[in-house]
Design brief:
The complex is a heterotrimer.
Chain A (H helix, E strand, L loop, with lengths): L10 E4 L4 H9 L3 H7 L9 H11 L8 E7 L5 E11 L4 E8 L9 H15 L5 E7 L3 H10 L2 E12 L2 E11 H7 L4
Parallel strand pairs in A: 4-5
Antiparallel strand pairs in A: 1-2, 2-3, 3-4, 5-7, 6-7
Helix pairs in contact in A: 1-3, 4-5
Chain B lengths: L10 E4 L3 H11 L3 H7 L9 H12 L7 E7 L5 E11 L4 E8 L9 H15 L5 E7 L3 H9 L3 E12 L2 E11 H8 L1
Parallel strand pairs in B: 4-5
Antiparallel strand pairs in B: 1-2, 2-3, 3-4, 5-7, 6-7
Chain C lengths: L13 E4 L6 H9 L2 H7 L9 H18 L3 E7 L5 E11 L4 E8 L9 H16 L4 E7 L3 H9 L3 E12 L2 E11 L6
Parallel strand pairs in C: 4-5
Antiparallel strand pairs in C: 1-2, 2-3, 3-4, 5-7, 6-7
Helix pairs in contact in C: 1-3
Classes of the chains: A alpha+beta, B alpha+beta, C alpha+beta.
């Protein structure tokens, strides 16, 4: 039991501090970033708004949620967040959501590394049975990253989104514990 | 998926209406033998109002982390006791069960054992737990026998954990694993 | 021999102390990011906490001590420079039965294996038996925490209960051990 559960090859997962709402506000100024992560109306947030949201949301303990910030190992910079949400303990199921806030950090494997860490957490610390996610079909980079992390396509909600003048699907993916264990056998 | 949960042949597990239940609990607490066997708390006659306020506070929590039921007889629907699962360790699939039959005339007749069996069925078939734990005073032989009948195994004794009536009691820890429960159904 | 002059809090290298709400949260936040530390303590799922969250936790701890009157929480600090190295807690005290539960942790791996845990345990036992006049103490140890197991056994605790397969981590099941020490078995 010696692995540090929260540390990967490129990134580590850390507690959410007051620096996170500040970062959210910064990231929300890029509509491209926002629209990849959020189906809500893209609109830049003020630091005050995100801080108020953070104070309100983080008042009580949330035993069915685990939210982490993602930090690069090389310089400890916070580059995004990842979390498990909606844990249904009796069914051993949950949703994972991830966002890398800045474009300069996309496509470098940070997201995939963070996803690997959180899957190990989900299966080897929380002992869940499966992890689900949804992703917009106009985000092929994310979809590829999830496939690499072991997720299988499970379906799509057709024409669920309307953006930039056309309709898009929301893609659902999932990974079962047994599949994840097979992938990691021998490590 | 045909198992009927929470209903047996002589008892069923029902909701805890705070008003009715608090009155029953207040009445049962006046039987100090019942109270002193039930838990480690000092015996004390709390008012029905006070008990009700605790219940309401618990039931109004947004995230319910307890499953407590009233035990009602079939067919008369008499409220005779309670049974509940609490102290969940969800990531490990472990929880504690607590049970009390407040109406003395229902002791030693199998009502408690059946209620426990229903609670275990709920624990393993609905909550999908891996194991259920309980603690019981070592000298409460009636209860220990009932739990063993329901499939629990003794896992150890906390020595001198209770001092009551000038005596020193041990607390017996018992546990049942899912596969043991499945086997007990055969 | 126990006398009123002998310090309840001071060991040889470490001491039992109060919480420093200003400076301790940052240090303890670091411990919670070490999954091994959390896993050694017990079944609680690993969850790294920010200094702000730790500060809130400290406030809740002191509130509980004040209101429930059935627990005591100490920080473990180096006598030489007051550096925070861990915590020790006495809780679930049932005054009518004279029983309580003990928990302790040394936050950083570099501070473990130095004998600080033994010292802390000695002080805590003395506090429980000589200041609180308790009659028995319990401790719960996951079976994979062999260091803690030896620590408690060396101090006289016996394994009393084995809750089979009560923990699952890294894909396998582990037992939870519950140990007990009676006052008459304790030697100061």
């Amino acid at each position: 039991m010696n692995d540090n559960l929260l540390v990967g090859k490129l990134v580590r997962l850390s507690a959410v501090t007051e620096a996170w709402p500040e970062a959210i506000a910064r990231w929300s100024r890029s509509s491209e970033t926002f629209r990849l992560m959020d189906s809500g109306v893209s609109s830049p947030y003020s630091v005050k708004a995100t801080k108020d949201m953070f104070d309100k949301e983080f008042q009580q303990e949330k035993p069915n949620n685990f939210l982490f910030t993602i930090h690069m190992l090389q310089d400890d910079q916070m580059i995004g967040d990842i979390g498990l949400d909606g844990i249904r303990w009796t069914h051993g199921d949950c949703f994972v959501g991830i966002g890398i806030g800045e474009k300069q950090f996309w496509g470098k494997g940070y997201g995939t590394d963070a996803m690997r860490i959180i899957l190990r957490f989900a299966f080897y610390e929380l002992n869940l049975h499966r992890v689900s996610l949804n992703v917009f079909d106009y985000n092929p980079r994310a979809i590829r990253s999830y496939e690499k992390a072991g997720f299988t396509h499970e379906g799509r909600v057709r024409q669920s989104l309307n953006r930039a003048g056309r309709r898009w699907d929301v893609v659902y993916m999932g990974i079962l514990r047994a599949e994840w264990e097979r992938m990691n056998a021998g490590q | 998926m045909n198992a009927i949960l929470l209903t047996g042949s002589r008892v069923r597990l029902a909701c805890q209406d705070a008003q009715e239940t608090s009155l029953a609990f207040a009445r049962w607490q006046r039987d100090t033998q019942y109270v002193r066997l039930l838990s480690t708390d000092p015996a004390f006659p709390w008012s029905a109002e006070k008990i009700k306020s605790w219940m309401v506070e618990e039931q109004e929590k947004p995230l319910q982390d307890e499953f407590f039921f009233n035990i009602r007889t079939i067919p008369d629907d008499l409220l005779i006791g309670f049974v509940g699962l609490h102290e969940f360790s969800w990531a490990h699939g472990d929880a504690w069960v607590a049970i009390g039959i407040g109406e003395r005339q229902y002791w030693g007749k199998g009502y408690g054992t059946e209620a426990m069996r229903l609670a275990l069925q709920f624990a393993f078939m609905e909550l999908n737990l891996w194991r259920v734990s309980l603690g019981v005073y070592n000298n409460n032989t009636r209860a220990i026998r009932s739990y063993q009948k329901a499939g629990f195994q003794i896992e150890g004794l906390q020595r001198s954990a209770g001092r009551r009536a000038g005596q020193v009691w041990d607390i017996c820890f018992m546990g049942i694993l899912r596969r043991e429960w499945e086997k007990s159904l055969e | 021999m126990m006398t009123i002059e002998k310090s309840l809090y001071e060991g040889e290298q470490i001491c039992l102390a109060s919480i420093d709400h200003e400076n301790d949260p940052q240090i303890e936040s670091g411990w919670t990011h070490d999954a091994e530390y959390i896993r050694l303590l017990g079944p609680e799922p690993v969850r790294p906490l920010s200094p702000a969250q730790i500060k809130k936790k400290y406030e809740a701890i002191e509130k509980e001590i004040e209101e429930e009157k059935n627990s005591f929480y100490f920080t473990l600090r180096m006598r030489s420079d007051d550096r925070l190295i861990g915590f020790a807690r006495l809780n679930w005290i049932e005054w009518n039965h004279g029983s309580g539960h003990i928990e302790l942790g040394i936050g950083s791996p570099q501070d473990r294996g130095q004998g600080y845990g033994s010292e802390a345990l000695k002080l805590l036992l003395n506090f429980a038996f000589d200041e609180l006049n308790l009659h028995r103490l319990s401790a719960s140890v996951p079976e994979y925490n062999t260091t803690a197991l030896h620590l408690f056994q060396k101090a006289g605790f016996q394994v009393e209960v084995r809750r089979r397969q009560a923990l699952q981590r890294d894909g396998r099941r582990w037992d939870m051990l519950h140990l007990g020490l009676l006052r008459q078995e304790w030697s100061p």
